[in-house]
Design goal:
Nucleotidyltransferase, domain 5, 6 helices, 10 strands, 2 domains, single chain, five-stranded mixed beta sheet, alpha/beta
Length: 229
Protein backbone atom coordinates (compact mmCIF):
# COMPACT_ATOMS: atom_id res chain seq x y z
CA UNK A 1 0.00 0.00 0.00
CA UNK A 2 1.24 3.48 -0.82
CA UNK A 3 -0.09 6.94 -0.09
CA UNK A 4 1.61 9.46 -2.38
CA UNK A 5 1.31 13.23 -2.54
CA UNK A 6 1.88 14.30 -6.17
CA UNK A 7 2.98 17.89 -6.89
CA UNK A 8 3.20 19.37 -10.39
CA UNK A 9 3.74 23.13 -10.73
CA UNK A 10 5.99 22.96 -13.80
CA UNK A 11 3.62 24.20 -16.49
CA UNK A 12 0.65 26.52 -16.96
CA UNK A 13 -1.71 24.16 -15.16
CA UNK A 14 -0.65 23.06 -11.67
CA UNK A 15 -2.13 20.08 -9.88
CA UNK A 16 -1.78 18.53 -6.47
CA UNK A 17 -3.17 15.04 -5.89
CA UNK A 18 -3.32 12.28 -3.34
CA UNK A 19 -3.18 8.70 -4.56
CA UNK A 20 -3.47 5.46 -2.65
CA UNK A 21 -2.18 2.21 -4.13
CA UNK A 22 -2.25 3.75 -7.61
CA UNK A 23 -5.76 5.20 -7.34
CA UNK A 24 -6.29 8.97 -7.19
CA UNK A 25 -8.23 9.89 -4.06
CA UNK A 26 -8.59 13.61 -4.71
CA UNK A 27 -6.92 16.51 -6.48
CA UNK A 28 -6.76 20.30 -6.64
CA UNK A 29 -5.97 22.17 -9.87
CA UNK A 30 -4.83 25.74 -10.57
CA UNK A 31 -4.91 27.11 -14.12
CA UNK A 32 -3.40 30.54 -13.39
CA UNK A 33 0.36 30.07 -13.75
CA UNK A 34 1.12 33.38 -12.02
CA UNK A 35 -0.60 32.08 -8.88
CA UNK A 36 1.19 28.72 -8.57
CA UNK A 37 3.33 29.99 -5.71
CA UNK A 38 0.42 31.15 -3.56
CA UNK A 39 -1.70 28.17 -4.61
CA UNK A 40 0.59 25.34 -3.57
CA UNK A 41 0.73 25.27 0.24
CA UNK A 42 -2.97 26.08 0.81
CA UNK A 43 -3.87 23.43 -1.79
CA UNK A 44 -1.85 20.78 0.02
CA UNK A 45 -3.43 21.70 3.35
CA UNK A 46 -6.92 21.71 1.83
CA UNK A 47 -6.41 18.35 0.15
CA UNK A 48 -5.22 16.68 3.34
CA UNK A 49 -7.96 18.23 5.47
CA UNK A 50 -10.82 17.34 3.13
CA UNK A 51 -9.64 13.73 3.01
CA UNK A 52 -8.91 13.53 6.77
CA UNK A 53 -5.29 12.56 6.12
CA UNK A 54 -2.40 13.68 8.30
CA UNK A 55 0.67 14.74 6.35
CA UNK A 56 2.79 12.31 8.37
CA UNK A 57 0.69 9.45 6.94
CA UNK A 58 1.94 10.13 3.42
CA UNK A 59 4.49 7.54 2.30
CA UNK A 60 6.27 9.61 -0.36
CA UNK A 61 6.19 12.93 -2.20
CA UNK A 62 6.32 12.91 -6.01
CA UNK A 63 7.47 16.09 -7.74
CA UNK A 64 7.50 17.14 -11.38
CA UNK A 65 11.11 18.29 -11.74
CA UNK A 66 10.84 20.20 -14.99
CA UNK A 67 11.59 21.56 -17.42
CA UNK A 68 9.03 24.31 -17.23
CA UNK A 69 8.36 27.54 -15.41
CA UNK A 70 11.38 28.62 -13.35
CA UNK A 71 9.21 29.97 -10.56
CA UNK A 72 6.85 27.01 -10.60
CA UNK A 73 9.72 24.54 -10.48
CA UNK A 74 11.45 26.29 -7.58
CA UNK A 75 8.24 26.54 -5.56
CA UNK A 76 7.29 22.92 -6.17
CA UNK A 77 10.71 21.51 -5.41
CA UNK A 78 11.12 23.61 -2.26
CA UNK A 79 7.78 22.43 -0.91
CA UNK A 80 8.40 18.78 -1.75
CA UNK A 81 11.87 18.80 -0.19
CA UNK A 82 10.66 20.67 2.87
CA UNK A 83 7.99 18.05 3.58
CA UNK A 84 10.41 15.18 2.93
CA UNK A 85 13.11 16.64 5.17
CA UNK A 86 10.67 17.35 8.00
CA UNK A 87 8.99 13.96 7.92
CA UNK A 88 11.87 11.81 6.65
CA UNK A 89 9.87 10.69 3.61
CA UNK A 90 11.32 9.67 0.22
CA UNK A 91 11.07 11.96 -2.78
CA UNK A 92 10.11 10.72 -6.25
CA UNK A 93 11.38 12.85 -9.14
CA UNK A 94 9.57 12.74 -12.49
CA UNK A 95 10.53 14.69 -15.61
CA UNK A 96 7.72 16.99 -16.77
CA UNK A 97 8.14 15.96 -20.40
CA UNK A 98 7.81 12.30 -19.47
CA UNK A 99 4.57 13.08 -17.65
CA UNK A 100 3.13 14.80 -20.74
CA UNK A 101 4.26 11.95 -23.00
CA UNK A 102 2.69 9.38 -20.69
CA UNK A 103 -0.55 11.38 -20.61
CA UNK A 104 -0.61 11.53 -24.41
CA UNK A 105 -0.19 7.75 -24.62
CA UNK A 106 -2.94 7.10 -22.06
CA UNK A 107 -5.43 9.38 -23.80
CA UNK A 108 -4.69 8.54 -27.44
CA UNK A 109 -4.33 4.77 -27.48
CA UNK A 110 -7.82 4.54 -29.02
CA UNK A 111 -7.17 7.27 -31.60
CA UNK A 112 -3.80 6.17 -32.95
CA UNK A 113 -1.67 3.08 -33.27
CA UNK A 114 0.68 4.23 -30.52
CA UNK A 115 3.07 1.34 -31.17
CA UNK A 116 4.04 2.94 -34.48
CA UNK A 117 4.45 6.48 -33.20
CA UNK A 118 7.02 8.57 -31.42
CA UNK A 119 5.64 10.88 -28.76
CA UNK A 120 6.93 14.45 -28.65
CA UNK A 121 5.91 16.53 -25.62
CA UNK A 122 6.51 20.27 -25.94
CA UNK A 123 6.50 22.90 -23.20
CA UNK A 124 6.43 26.53 -24.28
CA UNK A 125 9.71 28.26 -23.44
CA UNK A 126 8.72 31.63 -25.00
CA UNK A 127 9.34 33.02 -28.46
CA UNK A 128 10.00 30.10 -30.81
CA UNK A 129 11.72 27.97 -28.20
CA UNK A 130 10.30 24.88 -26.53
CA UNK A 131 11.42 22.28 -24.03
CA UNK A 132 11.03 18.96 -25.77
CA UNK A 133 12.09 15.33 -26.11
CA UNK A 134 11.09 12.23 -28.04
CA UNK A 135 9.77 9.05 -26.44
CA UNK A 136 8.76 5.63 -27.70
CA UNK A 137 5.40 4.11 -26.78
CA UNK A 138 7.20 2.51 -23.79
CA UNK A 139 8.53 5.88 -22.66
CA UNK A 140 12.05 5.02 -23.73
CA UNK A 141 13.97 8.21 -24.49
CA UNK A 142 14.67 8.61 -28.22
CA UNK A 143 15.75 12.26 -28.02
CA UNK A 144 17.03 13.57 -24.70
CA UNK A 145 15.10 16.42 -23.03
CA UNK A 146 16.42 19.73 -24.29
CA UNK A 147 15.62 23.35 -25.10
CA UNK A 148 15.04 23.73 -28.84
CA UNK A 149 14.38 26.66 -31.14
CA UNK A 150 11.86 25.26 -33.60
CA UNK A 151 11.61 26.00 -37.30
CA UNK A 152 10.14 24.29 -40.36
CA UNK A 153 13.04 21.80 -40.47
CA UNK A 154 12.83 20.63 -36.86
CA UNK A 155 12.74 16.83 -36.35
CA UNK A 156 13.51 16.37 -40.05
CA UNK A 157 15.64 13.25 -39.50
CA UNK A 158 13.14 11.63 -37.15
CA UNK A 159 10.31 12.20 -39.63
CA UNK A 160 12.10 10.02 -42.21
CA UNK A 161 11.19 6.81 -40.40
CA UNK A 162 8.42 7.77 -37.99
CA UNK A 163 5.13 9.48 -37.49
CA UNK A 164 5.36 11.77 -34.46
CA UNK A 165 2.53 12.75 -32.13
CA UNK A 166 3.10 16.27 -30.77
CA UNK A 167 1.47 17.32 -27.53
CA UNK A 168 1.72 20.06 -24.92
CA UNK A 169 1.32 23.82 -24.86
CA UNK A 170 4.49 24.27 -26.92
CA UNK A 171 3.04 22.19 -29.76
CA UNK A 172 0.48 24.91 -30.46
CA UNK A 173 3.11 27.25 -31.89
CA UNK A 174 4.87 24.43 -33.73
CA UNK A 175 1.75 23.20 -35.53
CA UNK A 176 1.30 26.23 -37.86
CA UNK A 177 4.85 26.02 -39.21
CA UNK A 178 5.11 22.23 -39.41
CA UNK A 179 4.29 20.98 -42.90
CA UNK A 180 5.46 17.38 -42.59
CA UNK A 181 2.79 14.78 -43.33
CA UNK A 182 4.18 12.52 -40.59
CA UNK A 183 3.32 15.07 -37.91
CA UNK A 184 0.23 14.48 -35.78
CA UNK A 185 -1.14 16.80 -33.13
CA UNK A 186 -3.43 16.24 -30.16
CA UNK A 187 -4.98 18.40 -27.45
CA UNK A 188 -3.22 18.93 -24.15
CA UNK A 189 -3.77 15.78 -22.09
CA UNK A 190 -4.65 15.38 -18.42
CA UNK A 191 -1.26 15.17 -16.75
CA UNK A 192 -2.75 14.33 -13.36
CA UNK A 193 -3.52 10.70 -14.17
CA UNK A 194 -0.17 10.20 -15.90
CA UNK A 195 1.82 11.55 -12.97
CA UNK A 196 -0.06 9.22 -10.65
CA UNK A 197 0.78 6.22 -12.86
CA UNK A 198 4.46 7.15 -12.98
CA UNK A 199 4.82 7.94 -9.28
CA UNK A 200 3.09 4.69 -8.30
CA UNK A 201 5.43 2.70 -10.53
CA UNK A 202 8.51 4.46 -9.16
CA UNK A 203 7.34 3.91 -5.59
CA UNK A 204 6.86 0.20 -6.23
CA UNK A 205 10.38 0.00 -7.68
CA UNK A 206 11.77 2.08 -4.79
CA UNK A 207 13.05 4.50 -7.41
CA UNK A 208 13.65 7.42 -5.07
CA UNK A 209 15.87 10.44 -5.61
CA UNK A 210 18.63 11.61 -3.30
CA UNK A 211 16.81 14.22 -1.26
CA UNK A 212 19.85 16.40 -0.58
CA UNK A 213 20.74 16.63 -4.27
CA UNK A 214 17.26 16.83 -5.79
CA UNK A 215 16.98 19.95 -7.94
CA UNK A 216 14.71 21.22 -10.72
CA UNK A 217 15.68 20.36 -14.29
CA UNK A 218 15.72 23.79 -15.91
CA UNK A 219 17.51 22.76 -19.16
CA UNK A 220 18.43 26.42 -19.62
CA UNK A 221 20.94 28.44 -17.63
CA UNK A 222 20.20 31.83 -16.12
CA UNK A 223 21.97 34.72 -17.80
CA UNK A 224 22.61 38.16 -16.32
CA UNK A 225 22.29 40.36 -19.42
CA UNK A 226 23.38 43.44 -17.47
CA UNK A 227 26.93 42.06 -17.39
CA UNK A 228 27.18 41.38 -21.11
CA UNK A 229 29.49 43.73 -23.07
Amino acid sequence: MSLILNIDTATDIAHISLSKSGVILDSVINSDQKEHGSFLQPAIEKLLKINSIAIKSVDAIAISTGPGSYTGLRVGMASAKGICFALQKPIISINSLEIIACAAILENSDNYDISNLLICPMIDARRMEVFTALYSQNLEIILEPQAMIIDSNSFENHFLMNKILFVGNGAKKWEPICKNENALFTDNPNNLLAMNRLSFKKYGNKDFSNLAYSEPSYLKEFFDTSKQP
